[in-house]
């Protein structure tokens, strides 16, 4: 293994700071000379913080109360299940039976019968052969991309992909080609110049604008070159497909031998965690090679119990998916009619254009002061020049709540956001 040389190559009479080093004496460590100010190893953080302030890009934490009168259009609780009695009882019952934590990695002590049950039912519901549950959706994406893109292979990645897919590409030992947004022809061009293993990775529904990837066309391109397709269905599960079975199911790709789907348990399922779904041999490969699975503590039993209860609710009440989509359509149509620029939603994300990052932040703050919580997306979460308010269309919103939300957003909109 290559090791960086540690030999001291200074001349014998070299000094550290203002203090000569006597012959045979130990060197004075940097920063210990009282005559010389100590160097600040984190001084560069202050420079970056100042640049963030100047650009209106400072982020802060805002703990939410357990109970609030605010109307929430910012969370990812698409189906309104996070507080459903069956879901919270599923979490509590799992914690009582299995304990507060998984106690170890899935390959040591962190797997329970509950994890296996959740994996079986996830795979069955979404139409895949097998599933593997991980501690987060982020970890699931890292696992899928890094383990399924071999050394010397090619990853074709949509330019609008989520940060977790982008990080997976960076960590993989393959070459990554970033292609134009939702453009199967761009993917075709990238694949045509490569010989060897290849995989295309894409969000099924993009988290900022809520637009969907052209999955059937992209899958056809992949198959023409013998490439696999990995789709991140974080925003599709529970909203798209028959009864919310996801984007792969809606596109007729679920269960195909060259398609892998990742998802999160923290959105439509109202819990926390992630999963990879695909052919059994793919899942077996991940168990043996995916570092975010092997070296991470398993999903907490409470999260697994909540997700399983929510999954069973969705299967029993398939109307929730259609209702979430209907709410998204209503928000889009009413906001557009009010003169705001929005992106037509393909699932349950509704994006509203804001003129600048500062105005987006003030707009979100004004909405909150008026009783409405909305998401605010600014660079680097989005490219420069496209700051947004992001609204979550929840299945449990009433028509009156939708109308009230539109009225608040329109009334508080900055002048540059409204078309005249």
TrEMBL record:
Cofactor(s) in the UniProt record: pyridoxal 5'-phosphate
Molecular function in Gene Ontology: 8-amino-7-oxononanoate synthase activity; pyridoxal phosphate binding; transaminase activity
SUPFAM superfamilies per the UniProt record, alphabetical: PLP-dependent transferases
Family membership: Belongs to the class-II pyridoxal-phosphate-dependent aminotransferase family. BioF subfamily.
Native species: Streptomyces boluensis
UniProtKB keywords: Aminotransferase, Biotin biosynthesis, Pyridoxal phosphate, Transferase
Protein name: 8-amino-7-oxononanoate synthase
EC number: 2.3.1.47
Listed Pro residues bias regions: 20-32
Entries under Gene3D superfamilies matching the protein: Aspartate Aminotransferase, domain 1, Type I PLP-dependent aspartate aminotransferase-like (Major domain)
Subunit description: Homodimer.
Chain intervals for the UniProt region annotation (Disordered): 1-42
Swiss-Prot/TrEMBL GO biological process terms: biotin biosynthetic process
Pathway info: Cofactor biosynthesis; biotin biosynthesis
Matching InterPro entries: Aminotrans_II_pyridoxalP_BS (IPR001917), Aminotransferase_I/II_large (IPR004839), AON_synthase_class-II (IPR050087), PyrdxlP-dep_Trfase (IPR015424), PyrdxlP-dep_Trfase_major (IPR015421), PyrdxlP-dep_Trfase_small (IPR015422)
Reactions catalysed according to its record: 6-carboxyhexanoyl-[ACP] + L-alanine + H(+) = (8S)-8-amino-7-oxononanoate + holo-[ACP] + CO2
Domain Aminotransferase class I/classII large: 69-409
Compositionally biased tracts (Basic and acidic residues): 1-12
